[in-house]
Amino acid sequence: QMCIRDRYQRRVRSQRLTQLHFKKEKSRRSNRIKRTKKTEQQLKARSKELEKKEADLQKREQELELKEKEVQKRESNLSKQIAELKKKEENQFEEENKLKKRREEDEKIEKERKREEKEQREKEREEYVKVADSEKEVLRSEFEKALSAKDREWEEKIQKLTQQKDEKIEQQINEDNESQEKE
User: Fold this and answer.
1) Which of 119, 139, 142 is nearest to 127 (CA)?
2) Cα(10)–Cα(116) distance, rounded to whole angstroms?
3) CA–CA separation, 22 vs 132, rounded Å?
């Protein structure tokens, strides 16, 4: 009986062990299947995410290309504007130089004109002074002539007057002498 029981127990134990083994195998398999399903789902989700990211990246690349084109357009426009501004500055600089030259020429002409006017005035003044000096000389000589003529007149008058006085004095002396002789 002991042997039978032992055998029975062994068999039961071995059956239990095999059942446990099969259960464990089964649970391992189901766990493996679940894990693979999970990993497959995760991989699918990851691939979807990657596809979304890729689509986003493509959109971003397209946006970046568009922005790059806009930037290039802006750069070309800016370079054109810069070139135009440089041309304008050069033109303005040339205009300023022309104006400076004109001003300098005008100033030279004005200085020359003023110098000529000054010289002309100087000449006119010298001529006027010469004319005035000659007129003064003429007037002086005429005045001297007139003075000398007046002097002669006055001398003649003085001589006449002195002669008359002398004659009067002589006459008086003669009268006095006569009256004294009479007395």
Assistant:
1) 119
2) 149
3) 155
- Give pLDDT tens digits for 58-115: 999 999 999 999 999 999 999 999 999 999 999 999 999 999 999 999 999 999 999 9
Q: How many CA atoms lie within 13 A of 23 on its CB side?
A: 6
Tokens of 136: 């003064």
Closest CA to 93 of 77, 101, 107, 109: 101
Spatial CA neighbour of 10 closest among 25, 23, 18: 18
Q: What are 120's two structure tokens?
A: 């002309």
CA atoms lying within 13 Å on the CB side of residue 159 = 6
Start-to-end CA distance of the chain, whole Å, equals 246
